[in-house]
Amino acid sequence: MVYEKCCISGCNTTRETHRLFRFPRNDNLRNLWMSFIVPTNPQLIVLSKEQLLNKRVCEKHFDIFQFDNEGRRLRYSYPSLLTDNEIAHGVPLTATGQPIRRYRGHASTVTCVKFNEESTMAISGSVDNTVAFWDTLSRRQEPVQVLKDAKDTITAVQVTNHEILTCSVDCHVRLYDIRVGKMTSDYIGQIVTFGSITHDGQCFVLSCADSTVKLFDKESGELLNTFSGHESKDLLLENAVNEKDSHIISGSANGEVFYWDLINSNCTRKLVHCKQKPVVTLSQHPTESYLLTACEDEVKLWGTKALEE
Ligand SMILES: [Zn+2]
User: Fold this and answer.
1) Does position 96 have pLDDT exceeding 70, yes or no?
2) Are residues 115 and 164 both part of a single domain?
3) Which GO terms describe its cellular component (predicted)?
4) Which residue, 55, 89, 123, sits at the end of a domain?
5) Residue 62 C-alpha to ligand 1 middle, in angstroms?
């Protein structure tokens, strides 16, 4: 029987070897199917509803999250057309234009998102004062855990293999040790707009709303150094630590990028990204002497080796 064949281009699967699924009668669900299928199968868009309902899609085009534990296809499942390689990565490697997960649960604007180290969890901070953990490997819609310790907006989250650092407008940073389920809270005295952790894991580097960057010992909570000269205004400035843990880096409201010696807190170099426009976000290469900075619609990549020599 000719029609009992998968309609996806390049796939000649028949019901002899795989399960074939009909297009759904439900208009919304069928449209969702089409949104995944049409980009690579434009020949289907000209078909009428009745013609489509005679077509079949084989089980190879549904990723594992679309089936229950017994292997039955879930009621509202759809063929995402991910390849085996894409499913192994958990993401579509060719854009279908459709997200594969949606996480709704925060009561207000989400300010920051991060993967955990294994990329099994998505972690989000919000204006609703909470940090939520979402299991990216399951179809679960609710967060698996919500941290509710902060009393004001979460501005930034950092994740290491066993720790999570959260920064808040409530002037605290909180360190969660996932292995032992312990939380340590430190009062910083200023709104903390961003936090990073030195590569050796020993210190926090906190950007504060009083136009300072502060270096704290992670174990003792002791303030080790304060870096200043830049302007934060009311921006949520970020910071970075260079790849050798020798310099602290921050942008500024005036378009400059500051480098400070981590030990003596002297400003050793300023890069000028642009004049009088804020440099809020930046990213240091983890192992090499490269820095990314952004200002308005422009991203710059800097080779910074000479800075350290
Ligand atoms: Zn197929």
Assistant:
1) no
2) yes
3) catalytic step 2 spliceosome; cytoplasm
4) 89
5) 9
Q: Is the overall model pTM greater than 0.90, yes or no?
A: no
What spacing in Å lies between the alpha carbon of 7 and ligand 1's midpoint? 7
Per-residue pLDDT reduced to its tens digit, 253-288: 999 999 999 999 999 999 999 888 999 999 999 898
Instruction: Give pLDDT, residue 84.
Output: 64
Element (H, E) at 299: strand 298-303
- Residue whose entry in the numeric block shows the structure tokens 């030195």: 198
Cα 58 to ligand 1 centre (Å): 4
* Distance in Å, CA 18 to ligand 1 centroid: 8
Q: How far is the CA of 182 from the centre of ligand 1 (A)?
A: 48
255 in any annotated domain: yes
- Please state, in angstroms and rounded to a whole number, the distance separating the CA atoms of residues 164 and 116: 9
CA of 102 to the centre of ligand 1 (A): 26
Q: Total structural domains in the chain?
A: 2
Structural domain including 276 reads 110-308
> If you average pLDDT over every residue of the chain, what do you get?
89
Question: For 15-51, what is each residue's pLDDT tens digit?
Answer: 888 999 999 999 999 998 998 888 888 889 899 999 9
Residues 179 and 213 in one domain: yes
Q: How remote is the CA of residue 22 from the centroid of ligand 1, in Å? A: 12
Q: Is 5 contained in some domain?
A: no
Helix, coil or strand: residue 268 = strand
Q: Residues 87, 64: contact at Cβ < 8 Å?
A: yes
Q: What is the pLDDT of residue 131?
A: 96
Q: Ligand 1 centre and the CA of 40: distance in Å?
A: 13
CA of 149 to the centre of ligand 1 (A): 48
User: Ligand 1: distance of its center to the CA of 42 in Å?
Assistant: 15
